[in-house]
Amino acid sequence: MPPPTSPSLSPSSSNDPLAPDAKLTPAMRQYARFKQKHPDCVLIFRMGDFYEMFYDDAVRASKALGLTLTQRTEGVPMAGVPYHQKETYLRRMLAAGFRVAVCEQIQDPAEAKGVVARAVTQVLTPGTLVDDDLVTPDAVRTLAAGFLDRDRAALAIVDAGSGAFHLAESDARGVGDLLARFGVGELLLPDADDPAIASVESAAQASGVSLTRRPAWQFRAAEACEALREQFGVASLGAFGLREDEPAARAAGAVVRYLRETQTPMSEDDRRQWGALPATLAHLRPPRRDDPAGRCVLDAVSLRSLEIERTMRDGQSDGSLVGLFAGACRSAMGRRALRDWLCMPLADADAIGARHAAVTGLVDDRRLAGELGPVLEDSADLPRIAGRLALGRATPRDVVALGRTLERVPALLDLIEPVAGLRAVHDALAPLRAGLGALGGSITTRCVDAPPAHLREGGLFRDGVDDELDECRTLQRDAGAWLSAYQARLASELDLPSLKVGYNRVFGYYIELPAAQARRAPEQLIRKQTLKNAERYITPELGEFERKVTTAEARSLAREQQMFAALCAQCAAQLDEVQRAGDALATLDALLAFADRAHARGWVRPEIVADAERCVLEITQGRHPVLEASLADRFVPNDLSLGSVGDSAGTLALITGPNMAGKSTFIRQVALVTLLAQAGSFVPAERARLSVADRICTRVGADDALHRGQSTFMVEMTETASILHHATDRSLVILDEIGRGTSTLDGLSLAWAIAEHVATIGARSLFATHYHELTELAERLPGRVTNLHVAVREWTGRSGESEVVFLHRILPGRTDKSYGIHVARLAGLPDGVVRRAREVLEALEREHAGAARAASAAPPALRSNAGASQRDQLSLFTEYVPHPALARLREVKLEALSPLQAFDLLRELRAEAEPGV
Ligand code: ADP
Ligand code: MG
């Protein structure tokens, strides 16, 4: 097969690394070959003590990393980094958004005939990092492949480190939500000219996901299934409940191919030559379909606006919900599990109840919790170690940590056995007890407690576990003692008291006699060197010793490598058990974090109401989980009762109140309490009762959101539209100042219509708004809409000015004052301006009152009509805008009109006043 040529580089270009060029050195020809295989990567090419980059790679990398750009030969730009700083530079290159292929010398240059053998040993991409020094252990950063079939999209999502493998589906517009929920860092899409793919691509780009186009054939049903069957050794995909031609299977096949290419780029022959452990994708779990019915859906916008993973202000984990628990987790695997639980809460009452029961067990039994903590803290990151074992990238420290962790499994099982709530964790671990305990024991008895980071220096295995290794080490350590013993023995045997055994770098070991005694040297001493005053000899015994000592170091290293490979193979044989133990420990850690927070903060177990007919949401003295920590006892708890149940006031609560009163805090806290409950956690409240929500949708009006670039109002409406499409009567909808991004009247009208729609859906909803007019909805939709407001205390201060204090307390009923002027004064607006604003307000209020009297003269039947006509709603706003016809009339200069013009105008005005006539 002829090598493919890169279309971006013309063959005649002198800067073209791929151009066949007889003048290239053999090394550069090698380089060109690898570069051709990895055209989209920056290729770092080991040459002696440096990793070199050439051509465009060198130019780009030198810019991004501040390296000096040199020229290898004329016209060949080159930049390099010292080999021992590889990790540092890899990290920086990945952070700069590069994909990197690492090309190593896989042969000792001294042994090479001609050019040294090289191979690409690693391909690093944003979604496929597995080494601990390249990836943050806490972070969930998965790889996904996406396939679109008309409006349906399927994603296959893999955590390359742990091997977790999920399949999820949605409509094309929901892809962004899936990417956010699964923490996708890199998305593979077929390289096809398709507008649907392009739109997914831009959605992904907007959320910072790195994109990789892959050949379209890898997504074809036949090729994709072949990859899957081969990977999992199954005859048909029925084993995974997949049809061969369905989109999910095609995405899954493509992701497997990509993993193979990036994770195991070397042939086994090359690996052997390089002395590396075998590499497989054995850690990849069978693909599991995401069950949308069992999940409470959080879309990408809600994840962001509820600050689940990071805050809106600075994008940090500190201050987010995940951040709140991160400190309570003992292990990175626990933190990752917890992140998934909070981003993908449950919607199955039994599953939720099981987690609550487990947390209850750990809250009630503090002694047990206290004993579990240190065990989990000391636990290794089993899922990721399992991954590195499969990929042949495990380090001595990985294996020792694995051993120590596994050895504790039996004791851990005994600890949790009596706790009813932890039965599921116990039952998952129990069958692994014997197998993993034995593996753990065999590791810890053979390996030292504090192993070296790399096996380069040796020193992983204990003394006494291997005869050959012991012999080598004894030789190295005891060379001095052996030599002096040998010298003493020889001196007395031969009766040559001046005999000495010595060593020199050129001649090695020797026996030395003063010239005077040299005559008496017996035959067994073989002459080696004559000095001025002495003779030097060697014996077969000393020669043998010398050979052993000088090779002992190399031999012990080789022996340790051999033993390490065998140990890794032994661990890899129990990969599945290690992974299952990892899942169980991660679960336990996440549960313990929930329990510890609940205990420390006085949270309660929420009651999940299973009634399928009616939805409730009742919270007594609820708090905001993040703010309650920073405000401590200054935080004011609040109650809420929402639902379709008789005595509850309705499903939609409108919350009015001045700026800074606490509206946003309150509605977010309700969302977070619901989310926590469904993630399996206790909640910050005195009591909470709720039916399971199928979705939690949150939208924040333009002013509160931090959108850049796009029209903020457009964003706000797009996001709201998605809620209106997806919300059901089992959802929880949180709307914060929707409609604010446009002019008052537009905004008010939209807010009104949206609120009405949400109330009609019957979703439990909270709508914070500064449009007081909306509170009329409560009268129009009685039993569905209820008004709440935030209490404010007002009094006349010493200066005679009226003062307000925000009580942050939510009370029933509406408010009709916005206190904007008070807030402005608090913010330090000059007194004169504040006074003037107050005058204007009073004037406006007088006018307003007049208009309101006129409006209330409307027929009562119309006003309470739930399906109020459009015209009726509009009447609400007439107090703000005169009819446009009126405005035109006022401006007419009568004296300047001819009778004919006057007639025309009259006709236009009438048409305007009565559309449709
Ligand atoms: P709004 O949305 O009504 O403008 P916010 O919810 O943004 O008000 O709250 C403004 C500030 O008031 C918050 O930053 C917080 O410091 C404080 N606050 C809000 N709710 C409470 C509460 N329940 N207890 C104590 N302080 C609160
Ligand atoms: Mg607000």
Describe the fold and architecture.
The protein has 32 helices and 27 strands. The chain has 917 residues and is an alpha/beta fold. The relative contact order is 0.06. The model is unreliable at 1-14, 705-709 and 855-880 (pLDDT under 50). The structure holds adenosine-5'-diphosphate and magnesium ion (MG). Residues 631, 634-636, 657, 659-665, 808 line the site of adenosine-5'-diphosphate.
Number of strands: 27
- Output mean pLDDT: 86
Largest sheet: 7 strands, mixed
Strand % is 15-25%
The class by helix and strand makeup works out as alpha/beta
Radius of gyration (CA) equals 37 Å
The largest sheet has its strands arranged as 13-23-24-25-21-26-27
Low-confidence stretches: 1-14, 705-709, 855-880
Overall geometric form: elongated
Helical residue percent band? 40-55%
The distinct bound ligands, ions and cofactors come out as: adenosine-5'-diphosphate, magnesium ion
Our count of helices gives 32
Termini gap: 76 Å
Précis, in short:
With 917 residues, the protein is of the alpha/beta class.
List the keywords.
six-stranded mixed β-sheet, alpha/beta, disordered N terminus, binds adenosine-5'-diphosphate, seven-stranded mixed β-sheet, binds magnesium ion, 917 residues, 32 helices
Break the fold down into its secondary structure elements and pairings.
Layout: H1 26-37, E1 42-47, E2 50-54, H2 55-65, E3 70-71, E4 77-82, H3 86-95, E5 100-105, E6 118-124, E7 142-149, E8 152-158, E9 165-171, H4 175-181, E10 184-190, H5 195-206, E11 210-214, H6 221-232, H7 247-263, H8 268-274, E12 288-289, E13 297-298, H9 300-305, H10 321-326, H11 332-343, H12 349-364, H13 366-377, H14 382-390, H15 396-407, H16 409-416, H17 423-429, H18 433-446, H19 467-494, E14 500-504, E15 508-514, E16 526-530, E17 534-538, H20 540-572, H21 575-601, E18 607-609, E19 616-622, H22 627-631, E20 638-643, E21 652-656, H23 663-679, E22 687-691, E23 695-700, H24 712-726, E24 732-736, H25 744-761, E25 764-768, H26 777-780, E26 785-796, E27 802-812, H27 820-826, H28 831-855, H29 860-863, H30 870-875, H31 884-891, H32 899-913
Helix pairs in contact: 6-7, 11-21, 12-21, 13-21, 14-21, 15-18, 17-21, 19-20, 27-28, 31-32
The protein binds adenosine-5'-diphosphate and magnesium ion.
